TrEMBL record, chains A, B:
Reactions the enzyme catalyzes: a 2,3-saturated acyl-[ACP] + NADP(+) = a (2E)-enoyl-[ACP] + NADPH + H(+)
Assembly notes: Homodimer.
Subcellular location, principal: mitochondrion
Protein name: Enoyl-[acyl-carrier-protein] reductase, mitochondrial
Record's keyword terms, sorted: Fatty acid biosynthesis, Fatty acid metabolism, Lipid biosynthesis, Lipid metabolism, Mitochondrion, NADP, Oxidoreductase, Transit peptide
Localization annotation: Mitochondrion
One BP annotation, GO: fatty acid biosynthetic process
Length: 373, 373
């Protein structure tokens, strides 16, 4: 929380007398306040002052330098993704979100730029991520306490470091924390082309778990199937392929899945429910179709299904999250040895508006957009 | 399973050559088969030969005497309820059901009529219930092994003994086995006028758990509210009373419930979901409205709800059921001391067709129908 709080606070103070776009003019006065202290460079940030459609409300603003206190670390941000939850926070529909005005973004990676005199375990040039993730990562410089940063390996592409927390960790926890799966079991998921979906395929494969994947009926679905199979998918079906009376007949040799993942809702969630084994569990972690999950009475009583949800931001506040840095290191080690990969598109910060339009789906289906600062 | 299996088997054998209604004519020949053995009296039974609308398919048939083997007990049935699940089994829509032709019924109480020579722990005149419950209780005499019968107290009305397993035990297990509730917590349920509903109110009260009850909008709902409050309901609302934006504002001093029970489905299930606390659980054990449960994505992700089902017939096959006779004794002790009661209507076996019509809802809303043999 530190970075965004500090950044937004100083912005909040300043905006009493100036409009955001006039901020640079205030630098001199502002820096005088910190005359005796080390300060960060000014930060260029994606800021929103009210909730609404992201492309209508964000502006890129120069924030004044921040004081670097004795235990603080100033980080030059390298890259940060545009996740659907970032968009929901800007829209104001996310239940936990920063107060406006706010700097957007929730995860990312940066390089240590300068240190307070009490910092022992980080050095200039180290790669770090905010861990747990925190608001306000879409900016060029962030100052927060040493303990807020987790040092990570540098031998991986920065876009993986920037995205390791929200999506891969969601996939890992959903696979580990709800149903005991052992080699030979299987899982089923919709939205298999999402980053979480791609991670589930690969993490399941590592555990010896077969995976059944459902994708939407779209032009190019044969290509998508091939891509997912290359990642390790055991079976990929379009929704229409599964619109048959005896849906389980399509599974052939794959055992009926014990665990299902739903990030779509509506009919697509119903397909996951139909494919699940007696006594199975479906986890909902997204609702891309903006339609509810519909469950028959007999699914509960006779099929004994359990339906639950997963939300990483909530998980981060629980005891289980105390080992999250170890989990991050594990996921990055998989990236390093080529066992975890997913499609992303790096976009320079100067093209932020284009990246945002792509993330908003205005230009059709695009890979995950990663802002490169 | 013993009684119904034996009864249906002999009926099944006979029906190769005679129609059910001709069975009495075959007694002499049949009894000759068992010449050297003790036999039960002939049994008058509610039999169906195919699945369909119960009032179209059942007939009352005289079944021939059964052999009473050394460890068998012959029980003269006293009373047996018509439960919704009995109707579903006759309709053929229940996933586990006896093969046709079958004697209907699943629970009931009887009096020991005669014993095999190896029976040690039961005596003529004892009251017994089939435990676990088993198919084929709608008949006047049942023969099964001693171990299939559970001797119960005789100082309670027979209609409670006849009905203690399916509904009160469902209420008890749902309250005990899913969420840890302690005094001061609360639960919410729809279908509060059902027998399970009435039991939940009283069992919750005994545990110091507040209970919030939802009933349908029907003429006489004020009277229903008073009845349920007399049983121990803390709050009773009609569905329309809860159709307000801020549903939780109606709860006033009752804490938000951790656990909810749904036996209706559709909008009524949605009300239970809305009333549940963050992290709450809803158990579905019925679907009287024949409409599915509809759940928003955010209920799973942000409200962290868990949805599950409960089915007593499945539970009876699990390890947990090994103590079911102790639970039955506990429930009957509550009946004896006036802490567990619910509305029933006793109907003589000669009026079976009327009782069935009432149970099928043909004569409006009626209390649980109990056949008195």
């Amino acid at each position: 929380m530190g970075a965004s709080r500090v950044a937004v606070r100083s912005y909040g103070t300043l905006r009493r007398c100036v409009s955001p776009r006039a901020l640079p003019l205030q630098f001199a006065r502002n820096i005088r306040t910190f005359a005796a202290a080390a300060v960060s460079p000014p930060s260029k940030a994606v800021v929103y002052e009210q909730h609404g459609s992201p492309d209508q409300i964000v502006s890129i603003v120069d924030l004044p330098p921040e004081e670097i206190k004795v235990n603080d670390v100033c980080v030059r941000m390298l890259a940060s993704p545009i996740n659907p939850s970032d968009i929901n926070r800007m829209e104001g529909v996310y239940p936990v979100r920063p107060q406006v005005p706010a700097v957007a973004g929730y995860e990312g990676v940066g390089e240590v730029h300068s240190l307070g005199s009490g910092v022992c375990n980080l050095a200039v040039g180290d790669w770090v991520i905010p861990s747990p993730p925190s608001f306000g990562t879409w900016q060029t410089y962030i100052v927060k306490e040493e303990t807020s940063w987790h040092k990570i390996r540098k031998d991986i592409p920065m876009e993986y470091a920037a995205t390791v927390t929200v999506n891969p960790l969601t996939a890992l926890r959903m696979l580990e924390d709800f149903v005991e799966l052992t080699s030979g079991d299987s899982i089923v998921q919709n939205g298999a082309t999402s980053i979480v979906g791609q991670c589930i395929i690969q993490l399941a494969r590592i555990k010896g778990i077969s995976n059944i994947n459902v994708i939407r009926d779209r032009p190019g679905s044969e290509e998508v199937k091939e891509k997912l199979k290359k990642l390790g998918a055991d079976a990929v079906y379009t929704e229409s392929q599964l619109s048959v009376k005896n849906v389980k007949s399509v599974l052939s040799e794959i055992p009926e899945p014990l665990l299902g993942f739903n990030c779509i809702g509506g009919d697509s969630a119903s397909l996951v429910l139909r494919l699940l084994r007696q006594g199975g569990t479906m986890l909902t972690y997204g609702g891309m179709a903006k339609k509810p999950v519909i469950v028959s009475t007999s699914s509960f009583i006779f099929k004994d299904l359990t339906l639950r949800g997963f939300w990483l931001q909530k998980w981060m506040t629980t005891d289980k999250a105390k080992d999250c840095r170890t989990m991050i290191d594990y996921l990055l080690s998989l990236v390093q040895c080529g066992k975890l990969k997913y499609e992303m598109e790096m976009v320079p910060f100067t093209d932020f508006n284009l990246a945002l339009d792509k993330a908003l789906g205005k230009l059709g289906s695009k890979p995950k957009q990663i802002i490169k600062f």
